[in-house]
Amino acid sequence: MAKRVRVDGWLFTVTLLLVFVGLVMVFSASAVMAKDRYGSGYYFVLRQMVWAVGGLVAMVAAMKVDYRRYKNPAVVFSALGITAFLLISVFFLDRAHNTHRWIHWGGFSFQPSELAKPALILFLAFFLESRTKSMNDWRNTLLPAVIPTLICLGLIVLQPDLGTAIACAAITACILFAGGLELKYLGYGLAASLLPLYFLIFHVAYRRERILAFLNPYSDPQRAGFHIIQSLIAVSTGGITGVGLMEGKQKLFYLPEPHTDFIFSVICEELGLVGAIVIVALFAIFLWRGVRTALRTQDMFGRFLAVGITSMIVVQAFINISVVLGLMPTKGIPLPFISYGGSSLFITLACVGVLLNVSKQAE
Q1: CA 170 to mean position of chain CA atoms
Q2: Which residues pair with 110 in a beta bridge?
Q3: Distance (Å, rounded) from C-alpha 61 to C-alpha 294?
Q4: Which end of the chain is more exposed for a tag (fewer CB within 10 A), N or C?
Q5: Which runs of consecutive H residues, i.e. helices, occur in 179-299?
Q6: Which domain holds residue 238?
C-alpha cells in the first residue's frame, strides 16, 4: 500500500484560519491604543503581519523537510544548548517590566522561553524514542529525561515566568504519558511540585495577590482584581452575537493588554458567544488532528514530536482562555496564533510545519 504523501488538510486549514483571525483581532484590539501611542492605528498589526508571513514561510519550509532529519544528536543538543545559553544570557541584560524575559536587539525583541518549548519537545522525542519499554525506569529513563526539563524550568521561573514554566511542565507530562509512563509517576511529580509551587506563589507578593484576586476579584477591584474584572465585563457584554467587530469598548484603555494576553476577551465582546465557540472549536479540531497524527505515526520519534507540538499549542490555548473566563489565576500566556507577539507566532508556525510533515509521513 502506498504511503500517504499529502499533509493533513484540516491542520493546515485550521492554522491558516487562526492566523487570519489573529491578524483581524490584533488590529481590532490595538488600533485605538496604537494610534494614541505611536500615531498609527496599524502599528501592531503591520508588525504582526510581517511575523505571520515569515512564520507561514517557515511553516511551509518545515513541512517539506523530513522530520527524521532532526533525529540527530548534533541538532538535538545544539538546540538544547543554545536554548540554555539564551535563558542564562537574559540575566545579564537590562530588565524589562521588572523581568529578565526578553532579548532586545535594535527593533527586534525575542523571548528565549518561547524557544525552550520546542527544544524540550525535540530532546524528549529523541531521548525517549528507544526507551518506551523502560519508561518507568526512574534511574535510566525518567531522571535523565526530566533533568534538562527541570533546568529549563528553573531558569524560566527565575526570570520570573511561572506561567511558561508550568506550560513546559505540562508539555513534558503529555509526552511522558504518551510514551507509556504510569500515572503514579506523574502523580509523584505533581506531589513533589506542590511545595515549590507553594513558596513560588504564596511567598511572592504579586502572585499571592493574583490568587486572592482570582478567589475574589472585587476585594481589590483597582489593583489585583482589575484585569479579571475588566475581562469578565468584556465577556459578559458580548452576549450571543457580540457588539460587532471593532465596536468593543473594553479595549479602549479599560482592559489591560487587549491585543496580547486578553485578546480572547475582545473576541468575546465583539463576536459574542458564537465567535468564542468558533475559536474553541478551531483549537479542538487542531487537538483532534494532532492526536490523530500521533496515533497514525508508527515512528516513535514522530509520535512524540506530534504529541509535544499539539500539547504545546492546546495547553497554552486552554490556559489563556481559562484565565480570560476567570477559571484560573492570571498568567502571562498568549493565545497561540491570535495574540500579538511576533517571535511566539513565528516559532509556533514553524513547529506546526514539523507537525504537518509528521502527518505527511504517517502511515
Answers
A1: 11
A2: 103
A3: 21
A4: N
A5: 183-202, 205-215, 226-238, 263-296
A6: 72-335
Helix (H, G, I), strand (E, B) or coil at 195: helix
**Quick check: helix, strand or coil at residue 270?**
helix
Examine residue 30 and state whether it is found in any structural domain, yes or no. no
Cell digits of residue 126: 529523541
Angle at 173 between CA 172 and CA 175, to 5 degrees: 65
| Local confidence band at 263 (pLDDT 50, 70, 90 cut-offs) | very high
SS3 147: helix
- Digit-coded pLDDT (tens) for 187-197: 988 998 889 88
Q: Which run of H or of E encompasses 57?
A: helix 43-64
Decide if 28 is inside a domain: no
171 within 8 A of 313, measured Cβ to Cβ: no
With respect to residue 31, please indicate whether it lies within any of the assigned structural domains: no
Residue 161: which residues within 8 A CB-CB, separation 6 or more?
Answer: 99, 101, 113, 332
DSSP annotation of 39 reads S
Number of domains in the chain: 1
d(CA 169, CA 154): 11
Q: Report yes or no on 13 lying in a domain.
A: no
